[in-house]
Write a structure and sequence with these properties.
The chain is an alpha+beta fold. It contains 16 helices and 43 strands. Helix 9 packs parallel to helix 10. It is globular and about 95 Å long. It binds beta-D-galactopyranose (GAL). The site of beta-D-galactopyranose has 9 residues, from loops.
Length: about 850
Amino acid sequence: MGSWIDMLLVLGLTLLSLSPSWATDVSYDKGQFLINGQPRILLSGSIHYPRSTVEMWPDLIQKAKEGGLDAIETYVFWNAHEPRRREYNFKGNLDLISFLKTVQQAGLYAILRIGPYACAEWNYGGFPVWMHNLPGVKFRTDNQVFKDEMQTFTTLIVDMIKKEKLLAPQGGPIILLQIENEYGNIMEPYKEEGQRYIQWCAKLAESQNTGIPWVMCQQDNAPQSMINTCNGFYCDFSFKPNNPKSPKMWTENWTGWFIGWGLPFHYRAAEDVAYAVARFFQSGGVLQNYYMYHGGTNFGRSSGGPYITTSYDYDAPLDEYGLLNQPKWGHLKRLHEIIKSAEKILVQKSVTHKDIESNVVLSTFTGNSTGNSTGNSVCFLSNANNNKDVNVDLQNNGKYFLPAWSLSILVDCNKEIYNTAKVSTQISMKTKKPSNGDTELNWVWRAEPMKDTLNGQGSSTAKQLLEQKATTADASDYLWYMTRVNVDATFPKNTTLRVNTTGSVLHAYVNKKRIGSDWRSGGGFVFEKPVILKKGVNLISLLSVTVGLTNYGSFFDLVPFGIVGGPVQLIGSTGNFNKDLSSNEWSYKIGLNGENQHFYDDKLSRKNQWASEGLPINRPMTWYKTTFKAPLGKNPVVIDMQSMSKGHAWVNGHSLGRFWPTMIAQAPKGYSCSDTCDYRGNYDDHKCFSNCGNPSQRWYHVPRSFLNDGDNILILFEEIGGNPIKISFQTVTTEKACGNAYEGSTLELSCQGGQTISAIEFASFGDPQGKCGSFKKGSCDATNTLSVLEKSCVGKESCSVNVLEATFGSSSCSINTPKRLAVQAAC
Ligand code: GAL
C-alpha cells in the first residue's frame, strides 16, 4: 500500500506535468496585459530573422535587451519556408526555432506574427508564388483553396513551436501571436467574402489551442477573442481596442521608413519616436513594438515591391549592420528605463487627464508602487502643438518648460526626469573606410551565354504574352520572351519596336543584337527604340526583369508583371504602319543560363571558363569574379558598388541581394532633401528626406559570417554595364561621438566595436553653438573643459563625466544662461 507521501508525490507530479512550474500564464483583463496574473507594461522590437544572419542574432538581441526591450517580435516568412509546395526550408537564417530559442536564452519574450500574410516589404508579402498558380485560388478571402493552404502552414508553424515548447504556457518565450496582418485596411473590396474570411481566421487561430492571446492588427471589427491592435507612426488617444477587456497594444511603431530604388532615405528623429512612445503610454497603452528595431538586409531576392531596395535599414535603433543608431537607440533606452520605473503605477490604470491649455494635457497616474524608484504618482505632461513651446505652471508641483511636440515625464508629478525633445544621448557619426589599405582587386569575367535565347530558343511556347510571375513561379527575376517576324514588302524602311510592359526593366535584342534597355522606378513603362529589320525572318528576344513582387494592397497578389498582354508592336515612322506582335507565337525561357549553371557559386560551377584577358567595362549581361581577403578587424563590411549599374552580388555563394546604384535618389514631386528636418508635427513617409542626388543604395552589406580567413570570392552579375575595377571593400566605423548635456546631468560617450576615443576635438561648457561636426564656442566657456575631457576619455572605449561647474571651473556665463557641455570626440 502506498504511503500518503507517495500519493502526494504522484499528485504533485501530475500537476507539474499539466502545468509545469516554469510555465508562464498569459492573459488579459480590464485593459491590462497579465503575465502570471501581474499586469505589465511591455516594450518590444521587430527583428526579422531572415534579414540578418544566425551569427548576428545574439548580438542584435543583446543590444535590444540593453536598449530596454522585454520582447522581440518577428513575422514568419512563408515563401522563404515553403519555396515549393510542401518542400520546407528552416535552415540557416530561416531557422525560426533557433531564433526563438536565442530570444529565450537572452531572457526575453517573443511575439510571433504568423500571418501568414506578412506585407513587410517582403517579396509578394510573404506568400509563395506557387500558390498563385493553384487552380481556383483567391488570396485573403473566403476561398477554400487559399484557406486550406493558410491552415496547413499556420498549423505547421504552431505545431513546430509547440513541439519545441516555445509557447509561454509551456515555459517558452512566446507571449502573443498574430493571425493575418492589417486586413482591416484593405478589406472593403473583398465585400462579404472578406467578412467571412476574417471570422474564419479567428476560428483558425482559436483552434490552435495555444493558451495565449492572438492579435489582429488594424482590424476594428476583429472577432472576439482576437485583439485589435494599432500600427502607424502614432497610436495615442484616438485608438481604442475592440473590447473594454482588451489591452491597448501597438504592434508597429514605425521607427523610420523603407527605401525604394530611385527614392531618398527617410529619417525619423529620435525626439519624434520618443514622443510617440510616451504619448502611447500617456493614453493608456500597455504594449508597444518598434517596427523595426533592427531592419537589416533583403538578401537574395527577398525584397518586396514595387522597387524596394536591398537595404532595409529603416532608420531603426540598430542600423542595417547591427550598430547602435545614436542618438535614437540611447534616447529610447532612457525612456524605457523611466517607463519601467513607473510600471507598477501605470498598470493600475488609475489616471486623470486634465487640459492645461489647447493641446497641452497633464495625465496623472496614481497607485501604490512597491519598491519602485518612483513614488505613488507619475505625470505625463504633453504638448501636442506643432510649433508652440509652452511654460506650464503646476504651482506647488513646479514650473515646466515644454517644447512644442514633446512630452515630459514627472516623477511624483513634481520633478521632470525626461523630456522627449531634450536628447542627452550621444550622436554617433559613422563613416565607411577602404579596408586593408586596399590592394586592387583582380577581376576575371565571362559573358552570360545567350546563344539559345538570341536565336529564339526557349523551353515552352504560347500564342500570347504571358504574365511573368505565373510563368516563372518566381524562380528567377528573368523571363525571356522571344518571337520571329517575317518582314515583307509591306514593311516600311524605318520601324520602331514598342513594348508595353509592367516589368521593372526590359532588355531588347533584335537579330541577336542588343538594341537597348529601359526601366522606371515607378513601375510599368513603354519601351521604344528604332530598329533595322532585314527582309525575311527577324528574331526579337526580350528579357523582362522583376525586382521584387508587390507586397501590399487589396488584391496585390494579382498585380501583373512582365510583358503580359503587351502590346508589343512594330510601328512605322509615318504612323500608318502598326504590326501588333502580341498574339504571335512566343517562346519562353525562365531565368538566365548563368543562374541555371550556378555561375554565382564557385563551388557549383565550372571554374575554368572565366577569362582574365580583355576585362570588359560597361558591358551588359556580364559575370565578374574576384578573390579578396576579408578586411581586418570586427567592423561591419560593405562593398561600394557605385561604379556598377544593376545586378546581383554573391560572396562565397551567399547572396548579398540585388544592387542598383544607378537608381539615383530623388525626392517625390513637391518635396526635397535636407540634413535638418523639423520633426515637430505629425511625421509621415514624406517628411525628412536625405541623400538626394546619390544612389538610393551605394553600399551592400557583407555579413562577417559570409567571410573566411583565407581567400574569399565575390561574384557579380551585371545586367546593364559597369566598371568592376572601381569596386572596393570598406568597413563601417564610428568616426565621431558627440555629446550634449545640461548642467547637473552626466555625459556618456563611447565609440563602438571596441574602438577607443583617440582625441577630443571640441569641448565647451557654457553656451556652445552649432551641432556635431561643426560645434563652436558661445559667449561663455569654462577654461578647463577640454583638459578634463581629455583626461577622462582619451584612450578609453567609453567615459562618463558629471556636468558640473566644479568639474570644469567657472564658465563666466550669466546666471540666466542654462549651462551645457558639448563635446566632439574622435574615435
Ligand atoms: C505595415 C505592414 C508592415 C510594413 C509596414 C511598412 O502596413 O504591416 O508589414 O509593411 O507597413 O514598413
